[in-house]
Write a structure and sequence with these properties.
alpha+beta; Hsp70 protein binding; 13 helices; Csn1/TTC4_wheel; 6-stranded mixed beta sheet; repeat; Cns1/TTC4 wheel domain-containing protein; TPR-like_helical_dom_sf; about 10% strand
Length: about 375
């Protein structure tokens, strides 16, 4: 059986006339008086700890939530219409109502709900600039409590744009500027507010902001000096590399300055000190020489590395005298390195290219099967 449709639910709600509003207000006054009178008669029956507040919440004036199911009585509906209906209220009146809701939620520490209420009030686009400023400043206060400092800052700015002379908004703006490390603006605001006035909190805020500003400025100066030194070092490094005719697989790679190993090409007087990778394909391992001076020979470095047999060379095949060193060029060909050559002289060779700011060399032990396979691979 089909359910009957209540046609009364389909009719649009009519706008209340002035007479209807007066009658509703009169009815509300009477019902409230009757309700309070009823409470007075019951007062002598209530004992300490009784749930008298629950009975009060049953009245539309005091209820905190709507009844289950979302259905409301005509009285509650009338109250809502009186307060929130766009037909019954001007944008200013609606904005004030939402501001009051926001203030209530703010006092109850429901800051997110307060933000929603203030935002709804602003959406009514009230023409009164002071009301706009109040809504913005109150929303800024709610954002402050939630530590939404950037939103708080923006709302304070907007409030002062709507109402330029607004001390509350300026004070909050000074506070949030400190939290956002906008110390210059914070100091300026404090100076403005402290003219001809005594405010210990503002004076303390200004002092803290001034100290932080000085610390920040000092750090910025240090960073600027460091940056200039790095630029000079980089320019000097570029000049020294170009003078030596050292080439890179990627011509711009050296400008990164820092290598894939986290090491850097260092300047030692008129000389360069490089991080160098030594590869051992036979054992799939490697060594890193962090500071290979361009005036040092490969033999000098190998004598240090192989002073004791490495753990991976169980047969002690790799010794300073048995080792042979190669590098691979851009065409995939290998070149033997004279171990008595300096690093600087090898880097200048026409076929050599630095890869990733880190020169690398391939090391084998002579007369081993791995070395023979290596040579056959490139022949």
């Amino acid at each position: 059986m089909s359910e009957k449709i209540n046609e009364s639910n389909l009719t649009e709600k009519k706008k209340m006339t002035d007479q209807e509003r007066i009658e509703l207000a009169t009815k509300l006054d009477k019902e409230l008086d009757d309700f309070i009178s009823g409470l007075e008669k019951k007062a002598d029956k209530w004992k300490e700890g009784a749930d008298w507040h629950k009975e009060m919440e049953n009245h539309p004036f005091f209820m905190k939530t709507l009844p289950d199911g979302g259905e409301v009585s005509p009285l509650v509906e009338g109250l809502q219409q009186l307060k929130y209906s766009k037909e019954e209220n001007s944008p200013e009146e609606l904005a004030v109502s939402y501001k009051e809701d926001g203030n209530f939620n703010f006092k109850c520490k429901n800051y997110r709900m307060a933000i929603i209420s203030y935002t709804e009030g602003l959406s009514q686009k009230p023409s009164n600039p002071e009301l706009q400023a109040q809504l913005l400043n109150n929303r800024a206060a709610a954002h402050w409590e939630l530590k939404n400092f950037r939103s708080c800052y923006n709302d304070c700015k907007a409030a002062l744009k709507a109402s330029p002379i607004y001390v509350k908004a300026e004070k909050r703006l000074a506070q949030v500027c400190f939290e956002l490390h906008l110390f210059d603006e914070c100091v300026d605001l404090c100076d403005k507010l402290l003219k001809g006035a005594v405010d210990n909190k503002l004076s303390s805020l200004r002092l803290r902001a001034s100290k932080q500003k000085n610390v920040r400025d000092r750090n910025l100066r240090k960073e600027e000096v460091k940056k200039k030194k790095e630029e000079i070092k980089k320019a000097t490094l570029k000049k020294m590399i170009e003078e030596r005719g050292i080439k890179f697989f990627d011509k711009s790679c050296w400008e990164l300055h820092e290598t894939v190993l986290g090491q850097t090409v260092q300047i030692d007087g008129d000389h360069l000190v490089w991080p160098v990778i030594i590869l051992y394909p036979e054992y799939k391992t490697s060594d890193v020489i962090e500071n290979f001076h361009e005036k040092n020979t490969f033999q000098e470095q190998l004598d240090v590395i192989f002073e004791q047999p490495p753990d991976w060379d169980a047969e002690s095949k790799y010794t300073p005298t048995s080792i042979v060193v190669h590098y691979e060029d851009v065409d995939g060909k290998i070149h033997v390195v004279n171990k008595n050559s300096t690093l600087g002289s090898v880097l200048k060779e026409p076929h050599f290219r630095v890869d990733g700011n880190t020169p690398s060399f391939i090391v084998h032990a002579k007369e081993t099967e791995a070395y023979k396979k290596f040579l056959n691979h490139y022949n």
